[in-house]
Structures are given as structure tokens and as C-alpha cells.
């Protein structure tokens, strides 16, 4: 196993700043996901770790040793690319064995290692076939087998499942997590797919436009996003953002929207935030679709009146687009939801799971909780 650390990595290609002061540490045996949209800098980060790119500034450590000037072949890392790059004219056995042959191991040892890995990945029955005879998922297993057969100290994976259909991606996610658990090796996995990151990672790093946005446990990053980008990247549908005007009143901060108002205690917000929140300035109220309950009849509890804009039945759930004044938010309801467009409905937000974001910086300035909720205070009749 190996720990891997980046310190202050900057990388520019022409006028494009691919990475900006990126720093993080991956622990021994950790499954670490780098999550971000296309162009975020994920591939560049992996290529710098393995040595295919040289950073303009910053240091790369493997087991606390600086490896900036160490050749890729000497870093003892394996990388699986989106393009699997299997040898089409060679058998599966020969593809998996190729790294061992470059190490000049004897034939008996090569045969033993290849068969062992193939059994582990459940592809031992296809060793005499060629890549063209295999499905996408089977070819993916071959690429993984070729990477693990030489037992490197860490594995880097760049969008390895993006070319597979949804059922195969599900199968391969289970395979990779099972493999990492059994190998107890360090995995750094780059993806744009939040489901892959949330379901497999021990920790997630959110990267966007070369800037590291947040690092944390999957549940932690999902529940407490540090900015609106993180809140958007994680969640399907993503978090709703409702722009509200601020009105300060003694020990309270009131958020005014044309469909409702909400109240937060001033002492829950930091002094720096309060000093910048002049009356009339905007804040965004963030709420996830699953944290909103919808009613076709007006409930006895405080609720906000809205109107159905459109419904999206998805089999196991229904996504309801709701108009609140000029805003449209998404709500998740059950598969049997019966509402129709233009119908009046009432929603109740989970006051313990609301978030407040600054409009300009997009930073989250407050996460509500059971002890300190954001109260939906006034409602329209």
C-alpha cells in the first residue's frame, strides 16, 4: 500500500489553468474519489500523480518521498484509463500477462499470477479469447486484471466505467469496491458520476475548474456542502436554490420571498457574515428535493402554497416541479403521485435541513439542524 500526497499543485496548459493550488492526502488503503464535471482537472491530477505530467509548481509525495523527478515506471503505480487500450491481437491471458513479461518473470510465475487474478475477477474462463469477443464489462475486467496482476502500491482510475451502460456500471461498481476491500490497496478514482463517488468512496474530493472545493466523507459532503457548486454536484435532482431578500429584526434574520418567509437566529450566523448582510441584500435558501413534503390538500401544519408546473414519473418515484412565485423547485414524491399541472398544492420544507448561501461568493454560511432550524415563519393563505 501507499499514501499519496499533493502539495500546492499548479498546472497550466497554454492559457488554461488546469489545476490551481491543489493539495490533498490519500491514506494507505483508502478508496479516494475525485469528483467533478468534464474539464475540472481530474485527469490532469491523475497524470501528475503517476508522472505523465509535470506540475508547474508543487510537490507530489508517495509514502512521504517527493517523486516529482521520478520516472513513471519507478513510481510503482498502475493506471486504468477510460480508453482501456487492450491489445486487440493478443488473447486475454496475454493482455493480463503483459506487465509481468516486461518485468521478465519466468513463465510458471506469470501463469500462476494471471490465473489467480483471472479467478478473482471471474474471467478465468475467457483467457483464450480476444478482446473483440468480449462484452464491455468483460473488457473492463481484463483492464483491471492487467493493472492488479503486478501488485502495484496504488491504483489510479480515470473514468473507467463511463463507456458502459447503466446495468454494467452497477455491476462494475460492486466489483471495484469488493476488489478494493479484498486487496486493501490505495485507490484514487476520478469520475463525473456522483453515484459512483457516493457509493464507492471512503472520501470524496470535489474539483471544479482546477480548484479543490471540498473534501470529506460522502455523507458529510452531501449533508454539509461548503458552497452551492458542491450542493449541485451531489444530489439527483440537485439542491434547489431560492433567492430571498434579507430583513434584519433584533436577534433574527428574516428571509423574504414572494411565496413565504423564513427566520434564522442571528447568533447562528458568524459575525463576519452578519457584518456583510445589509438590509435588502440577497441570500439563497438551499433545500434538497427529498427534504420537501408535498400535499394536494392544505395541511394543518405551516405550509407554503405553490402550483404544479410539471410532473416527471420515474417508476419508483415522481419528480414534481413546483412554482413558488417566479421560481421553480423540484420535489421528490412517491410513484403514485396524482397531481396535475396548474393544480394548487402545499409544500413543507424540513426546517432542520435547510441551508443559507451567499449570492455572490456562493459559499454556504449556515446549515440548519434540529437544534437550530431555519423556521418557515409566515405563509400565504
Itemize the secondary structure elements and their pairings:
Layout: E1 4-13, E2 16-26, E3 31-35, H1 42-50, E4 57-62, E5 65-66, E6 77-80, H2 92-102, H3 107-120, H4 136-148, E7 154-158, H5 166-183, E8 186-191, H6 194-200, E9 203-208, E10 211-216, H7 218-223, H8 228-233, E11 240-249, E12 252-256, E13 260-265, H9 271-276, E14 282-287, E15 292-295, E16 304-313, E17 318-324, E18 327-333, E19 344-349, E20 355-358, E21 364-367, E22 375-379
Parallel strand pairs: 3-8, 3-9, 6-7, 7-8
Antiparallel strand pairs: 1-2, 1-4, 4-5, 9-10, 11-12, 11-14, 12-13, 13-22, 14-20, 15-19, 16-17, 16-19, 17-18, 20-21
What does this structure look like?
Helix 2 crosses helix 3 and helix 4 packs parallel to helix 5. By secondary structure, this protein is an alpha+beta fold. Helices cover 24% and strands 35% of the residues. The strands form four sheets. Strands 21-20-14-11-12-13-22 form a seven-stranded antiparallel β-sheet, with no helix packed on it. A six-stranded mixed β-sheet has the order 6-7-8-3-9-10, with helices on both faces. The chain has a five-stranded antiparallel β-sheet with strand order 15-19-16-17-18, with no helix packed on it. It is built from nine helices and 22 strands. The protein has two domains: 224 residues, 3-Layer(aba) Sandwich (Rossmann fold); 140 residues, OB fold (Dihydrolipoamide Acetyltransferase, E2P), CATH 2.40.50.140. It starts with a strand and ends with a strand. The model has no long low-confidence stretch (mean pLDDT 90).
Amino acid at each position: 500500500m501507499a499514501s499519496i500526497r499533493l502539495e500546492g499543485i499548479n498546472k497550466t496548459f497554454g492559457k488554461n489553468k488546469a489545476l490551481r493550488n491543489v493539495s490533498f492526502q490519500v491514506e494507505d488503503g483508502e478508496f479516494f474519489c475525485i469528483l467533478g464535471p468534464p474539464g475540472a482537472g481530474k485527469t490532469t491530477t491523475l497524470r501528475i500523480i503517476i508522472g505523465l505530467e509535470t506540475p508547474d509548481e508543487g510537490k507530489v509525495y508517495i509514502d512521504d518521498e517527493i517523486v516529482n523527478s521520478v520516472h513513471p515506471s519507478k513510481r510503482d503505480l498502475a493506471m486504468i484509463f477510460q480508453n482501456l487500450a487492450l491489445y486487440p491481437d493478443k488473447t486475454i491471458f496475454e493482455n493480463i500477462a503483459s506487465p509481468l513479461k516486461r518485468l521478465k518473470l519466468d513463465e510458471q510465475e506469470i501463469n500462476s499470477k494471471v490465473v489467480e487474478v483471472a479467478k478473482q475477477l471471474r474471467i478465468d474462463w475467457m483467457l483464450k479469447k480476444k478482446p473483440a469477443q468480449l462484452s464491455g464489462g468483460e473488457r473492463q475486467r481484463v483492464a483491471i486484471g492487467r493493472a492488479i496482476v503486478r501488485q502495484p502500491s496504488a491504483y489510479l482510475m480515470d473514468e473507467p466505467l463511463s463507456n458502459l451502460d447503466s446495468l454494467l456500471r452497477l455491476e462494475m461498481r460492486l466489483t471495484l469496491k469488493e476488489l478494493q476491500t479484498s486487496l486493501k490497496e490505495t485507490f484514487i478514482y476520478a469520475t463525473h458520476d456522483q453515484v459512483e463517488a457516493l457509493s464507492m468512496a471512503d472520501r470524496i474530493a470535489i474539483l471544479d475548474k482546477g480548484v479543490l472545493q471540498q473534501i470529506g466523507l460522502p455523507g458529510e459532503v452531501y449533508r454539509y456542502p461548503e458552497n452551492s457548486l458542491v450542493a449541485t454536484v451531489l444530489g439527483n435532482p440537485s439542491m434547489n436554490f431560492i433567492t430571498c431578500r434579507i430583513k434584519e429584526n433584533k436577534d433574527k434574520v428574516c428571509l423574504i420571498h414572494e411565496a413565504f418567509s423564513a427566520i434564522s437566529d442571528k447568533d447562528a450566523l458568524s459575525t463576519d457574515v452578519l457584518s456583510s448582510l445589509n438590509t435588502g441584500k440577497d441570500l439563497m435558501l438551499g433545500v434538497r428535493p427529498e427534504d420537501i413534503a408535498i400535499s394536494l390538500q392544505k395541511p394543518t401544519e405551516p405550509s407554503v402554497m405553490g402550483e404544479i408546473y410539471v410532473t416527471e414519473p420515474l417508476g419508483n418515484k415522481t419528480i414534481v416541479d413546483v412554482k413558488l412565485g417566479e421560481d421553480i423547485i423540484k420535489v421528490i414524491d412517491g410513484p403514485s403521485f396524482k397531481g396535475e399541472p396548474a393544480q394548487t398544492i402545499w409544500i413543507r420544507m424540513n426546517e432542520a435541513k435547510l441551508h443559507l448561501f451567499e449570492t455572490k461568493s456562493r459559499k454556504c454560511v449556515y446549515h440548519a439542524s434540529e437544534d437550530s432550524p431555519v423556521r418557515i415563519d409566515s405563509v400565504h393563505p
